[in-house]
Fold each of these.
Amino acid sequence: MTTRSVRRYAMGVGERVTVELSSPTGPLLRVAASPAEGVVEFWDEHIEDGGDGFDRTFQAFGTGHPIPSDAQWRGTTERTPSGYVWHLYEVNE
């Protein structure tokens, strides 16, 4: 039987985080700035079907920060109260 749930992940800006997701390329549900300064959150629908997950690596960048040429954009946050906007990219490990 297949069970679906939404999972939340949080990471610091500039930090690389590898998480196991159900899809090797599927879109994320949402990307947002956390109330904690310099933290980006993202959500994914997890499908528990007995199969293996897929390790995917993400990194958040600030506007104007250099981004690796092979990185794939996955979402942008709203402006934080401090005026920052963060951009979440999927990166190679």
Amino acid sequence: MFLKQINLINYKNYSYLCVDFKNKCNIIYGDNAQGKTNLIEAVYYLSTLSQFRNINNDETIKHGEKSCSIVVKTEFKR
């Protein structure tokens, strides 16, 4: 299974984020405190259904919001 796209809504520091992934190599880069690790943690959460760090699920919701969501598009190849 390949991750094609991820959408984060009210997840940690993101109000909304949509990232399309390529088939080969994907590089995530940016300044400090911009949310690179939060993106990776969202992928980890969907892969394992557990938090990367030992935190409360409420800490994944953006401050001031009531809920968050992570939506992905995947592709299966044989």
Amino acid sequence: MHDLTSTSAEEILTAARDNSRVSGLTHTFYKYPARLSPTFVRAVIETFTEPGDWILDPFVGGGTTLVEAKALARSCIGVDNNELAVFVSKIKTTYLTKREQTWIRKIGSQLITETSLSQQPERPTEWIKSGYLKNLNSESVWRIRKLMEIFIERICRIRNPRSQAFLRCVLLSTGQWALDNRKHTPSVNEFRQQFAANVEAMLEGMQELCSNEKKSVKESAIQTPIETHIIHSRAQDLDNTTQFSHFPTPKLVITSPPYPGVHVLYHRWQIHGRRETPAPFWIANCLDGRGLSHYTFGWRGEEKLPSYFSQLEESFKSIIQILDRDTTIVQVVAFSDPTWQLPKYLEVLDKVGLEEIHLPPKLGEKYERLWREVPNRKWYAMQNDDVASNRELILIHRVI
């Protein structure tokens, strides 16, 4: 295990304070809720691992850990119980051949120039019956919904599954831009223009990631291939997942579990910031889970959150079964009421056999943990007794 020295801690602190917008590589393919900061993830990976090491993210979300691991020549395993997260993470980490890229540009151009609202696509009847197009029929958004139906019908004709999945992700990103938390819905022409821009930007991001990985592999001179595996599973079930018996023990776990008592919509868009729709699953051609509590360890209004902390304990009991004492666990988590939830959270981690690693004394004897202020993305060290519900906390642990 790599020790957290004053120098490495300073580097993590510097990266954590970075408040620039998420950009570069494939990070902008989809704005998954509560995303990790790529700059921070990169610093953590460089601090606690070497090229060729294995990394695990058991709550992989939008795949930030996977992307940064590939760019730095580390193999990585991502796990999530949300099929949408699995879909997005796979697209972000799958390279396309030059022929596939040419074909995608051609199809993308055809979608822009050869489609119109006068066309009558076959309605996605089963998706509609299951409620996946809920709240997309109002006067303000029906045109965008119909255009997406036309696009999906055309995309489904593509025989190459990787090209089809990539264009679905382009449409997913464009649909999110057009509909999620927007006060005003863009026009059909604006939607087309954004779709075209996303095709180019996403292909460029994929090429940038591929170049970064090749450069890192060359510089580190590692001989083993870099692997990325994405598994649709609950973190609670990792010790029962046979696939893990084939993987080396991760040197690092970096992740962001569900936040206790905090409302985060991992599985919905909000039309005009209010009405929810599960349309992202329809666009990505994957199925929703069992409601919000499926993704958040239970209902946030439950008194004392017994379901949350029970599932948190089950998850880390399972996770540590595939780790050893050389593994570092780094988490980013927020609390609706940290005054009692933080002690309870730490109690669970202690109970399953994890020991917390505090910031080195050189950084200040009163500063043991790193907090992030969410509204303006500012990071800073904070005294233990000065906490607020609008901040995220970085926790560093190791297996006892």
Amino acid sequence: MASSFYEQMIGMKINYDKSDLLTIGTDEERVNEFARIFCCKTGEFPLKYLGVPLHFTKLRREDLQPIIDNIIKKIARWKGSYCPMQDV
């Protein structure tokens, strides 16, 4: 099986409880067959990976706006706590 080959080569074990099989343009019967082979769940797009939305098409600005807002908020806090106060 391909997964055990990967595990042997890399030295890490795949956690199938945390793994989803994602396919593009594959009929449902084939997807279910692959899921049985690899003993994992099936998933679908869009999904989030490390908090970043992923899709097989181009993401829209609305998809990324929450991440952009979060970064701007963190930068503002960083600037406020690390920049010395200046007398004007």
